[in-house]
Design a protein that fits this description.
Number of domains: 3
Number of strands: 11
CATH topology of the largest domain: D-Maltodextrin-Binding Protein, domain 2
Strand content: 15-25%
Order of helices and strands: HEHEHEHEEHHEHHEHEHEEHHEHHH
Helix content: 40-55%
Number of helices: 15
Distance between the termini: 51 Å
Shape: globular
CATH class of the largest domain: Alpha Beta
CATH architecture of the largest domain: 3-Layer(aba) Sandwich
Length: 357
């Protein structure tokens, strides 16, 4: 009997040792990376092409390690739980930058070392989350709207009725965003509510509309909306432009429309980790990211939109997917920067309640 318990104890200790070793792997690699010129970049997928990184590494001798995250909330949570995480540069969505600044997770940018600053459209600077761009510089931008199958939709005018009014839903079901901010924005726009502050009563109106909509939502997702259109699963989906535009390159029946009430403008910015001690390498990498050759390559490969004038103007319209979507045009002036006034906890609580209902 004694031996039986001894074997069990040894087995438990072995598994604890294995798990501990697994958790320590990043730190073991970190030690090996510290001996070389290297940078660790936290980014979304479909933002940086590793083949371009290899060229950068050969030219500069700087090794770049990419870490991917699926949401800005995931990035913020990870950094708050591990404030000493090995990280030099991040590419978060704009709205999460303000809490990152308040948490002391990013450091100020030395603009005198950013020669590309003059190339950035002024329309993407001085956003509410960083009014003086002390901590962030916009690199990419996108808009949020409706993707659709033109063979099914035909000549009908695209409107929010197609996603919020059962009588106007084409094919019985739609693909809906799984992002709480985007869903709240859509519902508030449909209800004609102000987009800068919500009372408890208005937030309940938004909840009830989204709850009613559930019965004709075939799937809540972000990454699969282009597939749903190309496979004829849904005729209408709610999505960011880039996801739909990538499918438009190979499917001429897929289209993307801005919202008549004004689509949401989203920016992905570069921020510098408060933990980094590699500022010379960081600024060298920023020059690489904002260079015309690299930006244009990424925009053509992933159908993302650059914040710099020279690259955006040089893109073939097929990589943009929307006519006249340039800063200064009437279409661009309709775009909305969604500063809703809700805390991240309030959004999380709202979405948890909604998903559980």
């Amino acid at each position: 009997m004694f031996l039986k318990y001894l074997y069990r104890l040894l087995a438990v200790c072995l598994w604890i040792a294995i798990i501990y070793a697994f958790l320590m792997l990043p730190y073991l690699f970190k030690d090996s990376e510290s001996s070389e010129k290297s940078l660790r970049v936290y980014t979304w997928a479909h933002r940086i092409d590793e083949s371009m990184l290899r060229d950068f590494e050969k030219k500069t001798g700087i090794k770049v390690y990419l870490n991917y995250y699926e949401s800005s909330e995931e990035l913020l949570t990870k950094l708050e739980m591990m404030p000493n995480a090995d990280c030099d540069i991040m590419l978060p969505s704009g709205y999460i930058i303000e809490p990152m600044i308040k948490a002391g997770l990013v450091k100020k940018i030395d603009k005198s070392r950013c020669r590309f600053m003059k190339k950035i459209y002024p329309e993407f600077l001085h956003m509410y989350f960083d009014p003086e761009n002390e901590y962030s510089l916009p690199l990419y931008w996108d808009v949020f709207g409706i993707g659709y199958n033109k063979n099914v939709v035909g000549g009908l005018s695209i409107s929010l009725d197609m996603i919020f009014d059962k009588k106007h839903v084409i094919g019985g079901e739609i693909g809906m965003t799984e992002d709480a901010r985007e869903a709240i924005f859509l519902a508030a726009s449909y209800l004609g509510l102000p987009l800068t502050h919500f009372s408890a009563q208005q937030l309940e109106q938004i909840y009830q509309l989204l709850h009613k909509q559930k019965s004709w939502v075939g799937s809540y997702t972000d990454s699969q909306q282009g597939y749903f259109l190309s496979s004829n699963t849904f005729a209408v989906v709610v999505s960011d432009r880039e996801t739909i535009c990538r499918k438009m390159l190979t499917n001429d029946f897929i289209k993307f429309s801005l919202l008549p009430t004004g689509s949401m403008l989203r920016t992905d910015s570069v921020v510098i980790s408060a933990q980094t001690q590699k500022e010379d390498l960081v600024y060298e990498f920023l020059e690489f990211l904002f260079s015309q050759e690299v930006l244009k390559h990424h925009c053509q490969k992933y159908c993302i939109l650059p914040t710099t004038r020279e690259v955006l103007k040089s893109l073939d319209p097929k990589y943009i997917g929307v006519d006249n979507l340039y800063p200064g045009t009437d279409e661009f002036k309709k775009l909305v920067v969604f500063n809703h006034g809700l805390t991240q906890k309030e959004i999380n609580d709202f979405w948890i309640r909604f998903k559980a209902s």
